[in-house]
Design brief:
With 290 residues, this protein is an alpha+beta fold. The protein has 5 helices and 11 strands. The chain has 2 domains: 3-138, Copper binding periplasmic protein CusF (OB fold (Dihydrolipoamide Acetyltransferase, E2P)), CATH 2.40.50.320; 146-284, 60s Ribosomal Protein L30, Chain: A (2-Layer Sandwich), CATH 3.30.1330. It has helices at residues 132-143, 146-161, 188-202, 221-241, 268-274; strands at 3-7, 10-13, 50-64, 67-71, 77-91, 111-119, 122-131, 169-178, 208-213, 254-255, 276-284. It is globular and about 55 Å long.
Length: 290
């Protein structure tokens, strides 16, 4: 493949490569066992001339063949195709090591920065960059210790039952962070509270986190469901990327819309309390005290 530039910001393929079908972005991946997540979305139009696309930053939240989904700190997700020409780069204090990173290194839970091409209605990765230390953490998610698998089993059981199996866990603490009407932006106070919650969880043996988003009663059920998921996604990304909470100790975020209000939705004060994300520190009863 050879690429030339015929004017600023526009790339044209002289020897056309086969570009995989691209999917559209979606808010949450379908529930599936680790390593077997399906990336969904409609195929894009046939690839034509490529133009420079946006830079996408976040965590790989799903992989399916030659496509991956990257979830940004604000909770939005973007599906990006991987092509034979995609460059994979590892950086950090110790560089990439002796082994050159490949597409196989792009596993779920890995924070990445992706430079893209725009092709039709979708994006193709031209460069994917990550830190070597982050790759080691992501690898641990897939191949970690026996305790890791026990924790992941507990996490999967909780996810399948959503909040229905909460009696299998001891709740060690809950932190609520609040949002403005119709927004999923974290305040400075919320950011500080989240990192404090992560520190408390880190000091608790065998702790997992369950993050649940809520809204007040205004708006349609569909709108509130999407908003509650966006809020939960924003919180879970901040906990992982800024507060250092490990992805394999985090249950998949859940949106509960206007269910389970903390206060009366008929008053402005009550609605303000209900626009929240609850960060629950949980320990499986079978592991508590170990």
């Amino acid at each position: 493949m050879k690429i030339v530039t015929n004017r600023p910001g526009r790339l044209v393929l002289l020897a056309m490569m086969a570009v995989p079908a691209l999917g559209t972005a979606y808010a949450q991946p379908q529930e599936a066992p680790a390593g077997n997540i399906t990336v969904t979305g409609a195929a894009s139009p046939e690839a034509g001339p490529l133009t420079e696309g946006p830079q996408v930053q976040g965590i790989i939240s799903a992989r399916s063949g030659d496509r991956m989904q990257v979830t940004a700190p604000n909770g939005t997700s973007t599906t990006i195709a991987l092509a034979p020409a995609t460059r994979i780069k590892a950086g950090g204090l110790f560089g990439g090591g002796r082994n050159k990173p490949t597409v196989a290194s792009l596993m779920n839970g890995l924070p990445v920065t992706v430079k893209t091409w725009q092709s039709g209605g979708g994006l193709v990765a031209r460069e994917v960059k990550f830190k070597t230390g982050d790759l080691k953490t992501a690898a641990m998610i897939h191949t970690g210790t026996t305790q890791r698998f026990e924790e992941q089993t507990a996490a999967t059981q909780a996810l399948r039952g959503r909040m229905g199996d909460i009696d299998q866990y001891n709740i060690k603490g809950t932190t609520n962070v609040h949002f403005d009407t119709g927004k999923s932006v974290l305040s400075e106070q919320a950011k500080a509270d989240l990192c404090a919650a992560a520190s408390a969880a880190q000091a608790t043996d065998n702790a997992l986190m369950l993050v649940v988003g809520y809204t007040d009663a205004r708006g349609s059920d569909e709108y509130n469901q999407t908003l509650s998921e966006q809020r939960a996604g924003r919180v879970i990304n901040y906990l992982q990327q800024t507060c250092g909470w490990k992805p394999y100790r985090m249950l998949t975020p859940t949106g509960m819309a206007k269910a389970d209000p903390l206060a009366d939705n008929s008053t402005p004060e009550g609605m303000a309390q209900n626009r929240r994300v609850a960060v629950n520190i949980l320990v499986s009863k079978g592991l508590d005290g170990l």
